[in-house]
Amino acid sequence: MFKIGEFSKLTQISGRMLRHFDKLELLTPQQIDDNGYRLYASNQLQDALKITSLQRAGFQLQEIKRMMSDDIVNDELQQIIITCRQRKEMEYKKVKKELSMLDDIDEILSRGTNIHTYTLELKHIPGHIVASLRQRIPKYSDEGRLWGMMMSEIMPQQPKFSNSMRKLAIYHDEEYMEEDPDVEIRISVDNIYKDTKHVTFKEVDEEEVLTITFHGSYEQIGNVNAEAIRWMEQNGYKLDGKFYCVYLSGPEKTEESEKWTTECCFPVKKL
Fold first, then answer.
1. Which partner for 39 in 1, 81, 121, 137 could form a disulfide, CB atoms 3.0-4.6 Å apart?
2. Residue 203, Cα to own-chain centre: how many angstroms?
3. pLDDT band for position 55 (50/70/90)?
4. Does residue 105 lie in a domain region?
């Protein structure tokens, strides 16, 4: 039997982490002696090394605990592996994006401005009818769930989408939300149809909007917003409602974010 310090040296796992494993019931001491010392058996060395190997592969501790349980079946094991792979692929894409942004750092710092060039346009949007669904979602990236819900509920009525179909999202919170944002999605249709469990059909008023169309990932939206405010201040306009995004082409068509096209719309009023 080995005390926790000896076991820590043999496995190259800190005593703090071994105590954490014990708390999670991932790797518990074989016994605790009369003095309260945690004692580990030699046959637990392989379990400890297996845990650290799975950690290095990217699995989370709760996943490892389940993977090492006696009653796990192969289908569940494969699903855990798939989930881990998807998570690591997302992390890889994030790092690739960060590396790409590093190429622009010098230009951003030297100019002190946005490196992107945007085209701005004032548009008159006539009144029209929309299908609307508004809910709080865990994260902004979960917006796709709302679109899936909307389409599954309205398609049995076979609605006709207007020729100038606008597919957009409005964010109703007074500030940027790290979690649980209040999101409304709308898609323009030709008529008022019967409301469903989550979707309502309604008329929206005409409005004048400042539009900025950009290509690429949604991370540009902060820059777009700043550019819109700069234009308003220079041209004697003010924001006159919640701004929103119209999706001209997005993740539903391709996973390559550089091929996405988005139109940011800012309701405005002349001062």
1. 1
2. 30
3. very high
4. no
Pick the last residue of a domain from 12, 39, 73.
Answer: 73
pLDDT of amino acid 115: 47
Whether residue 67 sits in one domain with residue 124: no
For residue 257, the model assigns a pLDDT of 77
Say how far apart CA 165 and CA 187 lie, in whole Å.
7
Residue 7 belongs to domain with CATH number: 1.10.1660.10
pLDDT in tens, 98-147: 887 777 676 656 654 554 567 899 999 999 999 999 999 999 889 999 99
Are 66 and 130 in a shared domain? no
Residues 40 and 161 in one domain: no
Same-domain check for residues 168 and 266:
yes
Q: Which of 225, 134, 138, 136 is nearest to 187 (CA)?
A: 134
Q: Which of 54-63, 106-115, 171-180, 235-244 has the lowest mean pLDDT?
A: 106-115
Report whether 212 contacts 241 (CB < 8 A). Answer: no
Q: What's the total number of domains in the chain?
A: 2
Domain identity same for 68 and 168: no
